[in-house]
Amino acid sequence: MYTFTDRGDRSITLRPEGTPGVTRALLENALRLPCRLYYVGPMFRYNRPQKGRYREFYQLGVESFGEASPQVDAEVIALGHEFFASLGITDCESQINSVGCRECRPAYYQKLKAYLAERQDRFCKDCRVRTEQNPLRVFDCKEASCQALLADAPRSKDNLCPACAEHFAGVQDGLKLRATPFVINDRMVRGLDYYSRTAFEYVSRSIGAQDSLGGGGRYDYMVEDFGGGPTPAIGFALGEERALLAAAATPVPERQLVFVVALSENERPAGIALLKELREQGVNARMDYDSRKVQKQFRSADTAGARFCVILGEDEVAKGTVSLKDMKSGEQKELRRGELISKLVAD
Ligand SMILES: [Zn+2]
Ligand SMILES: [Zn+2]
């Protein structure tokens, strides 16, 4: 964490993440459950800066409080996945794991600690400390020799109580229902100590080596630990700088420009209405407001690199149709208004 002493001799820590603050806000404002919140803002960590990782960085996160169903886990994981897809990051993979609950974790920790203790002297110094404080963290070690030693270590997903196992299966079913691609990574535990059951991470190769774009998990005990009632919760946090790097590395197909052409000023109002309708459907559309002459409007469309022109004349407006001109082939055909949108959106 980024901690320092200020001029008033107070110890100051810049916030390293959003979840505990959102949880406090939920309690202090006695928000009604279930409740879904999001945040965007700067966070600070005293890490060594590297590509896409800064000491001050922006995170956007979502949190869902008061819902225990594995369908919520699946919805949250899918939401992050769809966010990356909307940025054009097509190789994003959701890695999921279950780290168990207060029922099943103590016995698992005993097993894992015993495994680690047997190999104690071959693990790095950090891992020896982790073994005592939070043995799951050993899986986070970057040392190849430690990772090799972990090959046969007991995994949390194989040591879940029946309720956790059922939940984990439910998360996978939910992801399949949503057609969200995922893989189980039984070594992924995430850096945070407060997760229970589901932990997940978004991984992309766009930045170079396989790298995390963010992640999250369930934290069913945090609200209680902060003095509230039992409240299941889950959320994720995504790094904006890393998402932008990954998006920049993935070419996004350019959206095809559509030009609306009014044959006379009488059709101008209908053209403007059509322009709005097209944009609402996500079509990149423009119109040349300055030129009255049709030839000039076509020239503007050409200069702007339009793929199609949608032409409105007296006839078309009267019949509720449009003429669609393909600017590459020069082909022109008349379509009903409803057909136009589906044709352009499909292209
Ligand atoms: Zn459990
Ligand atoms: Zn290690």
General description of the model:
Helices cover 36% and strands 25% of the residues. The protein has 347 residues and is an alpha+beta fold. It has helices spanning 19-28, 70-86, 105-118, 125-133, 144-149, 162-177, 222-225, 240-249, 268-280, 294-303, 314-319, 337-346; strands spanning 2-5, 11-14, 35-44, 56-65, 93-98, 182-184, 196-204, 211-218, 233-239, 257-262, 284-287, 308-312, 321-326, 332-336. It has 12 helices and 14 strands. Strand 10 (257-262), helix 9 (268-280) and strand 11 (284-287) form a beta-alpha-beta unit. The structure holds zinc ion (ZN) (2 copies). One zinc ion (ZN) binds at residues 100-101, 103-104, 160-161, 163-164.
Question: Summary?
Answer:
The protein is α+β, with helices and mostly antiparallel strands and 347 residues long. The chain is built from twelve helices and 14 strands.
State which percent range the strand residues make up: 25-35%
Largest sheet: 7 strands, mixed
Rg, rounded, reads 27 Å
* Total count of strands: 14
Structural class, please? alpha+beta
Strand order of the largest sheet: 3-4-9-8-7-5-6
Mean pLDDT: 92
- What is the tally of helical segments? 12
| Poorly predicted regions | none
Order of helices and strands: EEHEEHEHHHHEEEHEHEHEHEHEEH
What proportion of the residues is helical, as a percent range? 25-40%
Cofactors and ligands: zinc ion
- Tell the overall outline: elongated
Spatial separation of the terminal alpha carbons: 48 Å
